[in-house]
Automatic annotation (TrEMBL):
Pfam families: LCIB_C_CA (PF18599). Residues 19-232 form the Limiting CO2-inducible protein B/C beta carbonyic anhydrase domain. This is Limiting CO2-inducible protein B/C beta carbonyic anhydrase domain-containing protein.
Length: 248
């Protein structure tokens, strides 16, 4: 299947999606051409789901960057918190930059079914993101108790509480899983921005790319539907919107 045919399937759900490989290529082009930085001067941190598919479909070119430092747990929420953000902030080269890629993930099969992918070696599809689907099922069945966050299943319980706060919005949506993923993105984005504001970085720039990470079948690869691509100049405090660089 040609790249344009794959994108046509993914863009039925996410019109601005590009391949994850292309998103990395455009990022590296930007830092080289506009910031005069080499990839090895950039510390990559990601806050994406710990699902193994995200390791399998991780773009190879990210190996040119430092890292990645892993911030995310189930469905990409930055569970390493302020301590994690501070840790990799202290690892970045003095004249370099921090690049944080974050967001929830969702599956879309080659037939356009959302919430599933066909994984290597399996004879049938499986859920993606399984944690989001599980939390949504509990929401739909009124099984989430407000404030119930346990040590035994802390990450899942946190996702459940995020969805519970937007119960009416999610359950009234045409596609509740799609809407639940939007809600989780908003929670991740808010938390990342809060963590960034409370962290001291030993570098010139912080670059944020917030997105829905879209996984697909083994022979389809992964895609990025960006919602934020922003450069923060730590010397001047100025922010620059870079979303046009990811325009389809």
């Amino acid at each position: 299947m040609l790249k344009k045919e794959k994108l046509k399937i993914i863009r039925q759900w996410y019109p601005n999606a590009i391949t994850t490989i292309d998103s990395v290529n455009r990022f590296i082009d930007f830092i080289e051409e506009h910031l005069d930085l080499e990839p090895e001067q950039v510390m990559l941190a990601d806050s994406v789901c710990s699902d193994d598919v995200n390791s399998i479909q991780y773009p190879a070119r990210t190996k040119e960057l430092l890292g990645p430092f892993k911030m995310g747990g189930l469905d990409g929420f930055p569970f390493t918190g302020l301590t994690g953000m501070g840790a990799f902030a202290s690892h970045v080269p003095d004249d370099g930059a921090v690049f944080i890629y974050y967001g929830p993930h969702i599956g879309i099969t080659k037939t356009g079914t959302i919430g599933e992918i066909h994984r290597f070696g399996q004879h049938k599809n499986s859920g993606c993101c399984g944690a989001a689907k599980g939390a949504l099922a509990k929401l739909m069945n009124d099984q989430i108790v407000e404030g119930n966050v346990t040590d035994l299943d802390y990450q899942m319980n946190t996702l459940e509480q995020i969805l519970l706060k937007q119960k009416e919005r999610i359950l009234s949506a045409k596609t509740p899983l799609f809407e639940a993923t939007e809600v989780i993105y908003e929670a991740i984005d808010a938390r990342i921005c809060e963590l960034v504001s409370k962290t001291t970085y030993n570098c010139k720039y912080v670059i944020l790319m917030g997105a829905v990470l879209i996984n697909s079948d083994t022979d389809m690869g992964s895609y990025t539907s960006a919602k934020r691509f922003e450069l923060i100049n730590l010397e001047s405090g100025q922010k620059r919107d870079l979303m046009e660089l990811l325009t389809v």
